[in-house]
Amino acid sequence: MDSATPLVALAKQAYRAALGADPGFWDAKYNLEVAMRLLPEMDRIDSGNQEDDGSQKAELWTTLPGFPRGLP
User: Fold this and answer.
1) Residues 60, 64, 3, 11: is their CA dihedral positive or negative?
2) 3-class SS at 56?
3) Phi/psi zone of residue 54: left (φ > 0), alpha (ψ -120 to 50 degrees), beta?
4) How far is the C-alpha of 1 from the C-alpha of 40, rounded, in Å?
5) What is the pTM of this model?
């Protein structure tokens, strides 16, 4: 998986560019969703009222890797 990580990141960038050119391109939407499941992006969202002095606990992100199987 480590060798595939840069390739998945490049694929996500290409799918976003394709969606920028044609927002209705269904194949790019689907493939971007698959790539996001393989390599999720967890950006930290600052609410603006927290200080960056390091006294806050680090936020933990949990993900469920892989693809869901079966019905809910």
Assistant:
1) negative
2) coil
3) left
4) 13
5) 0.57
- Dihedral, 33, 8, 41, 61 alpha carbons, nearest 10: 100
What dihedral angle (degrees, nearest 10) is formed by the CA atoms of 22, 24, 28, 33?
130
N-to-C CA span, the chain: 28
The top-scoring range by mean pLDDT among 24-28, 41-45, 57-61 is 24-28
Tell me the pLDDT of the chain averaged across its residues.
Answer: 75
Q: How far apart are CA 31 and CA 49, in angstroms?
A: 37
Question: H helices within the chain, ranges in order?
Answer: 5-21, 26-38
Confidence of residue 27 (pLDDT cuts 50, 70, 90): very high
CA 19, CA 29: separation in Å to the nearest integer?
7
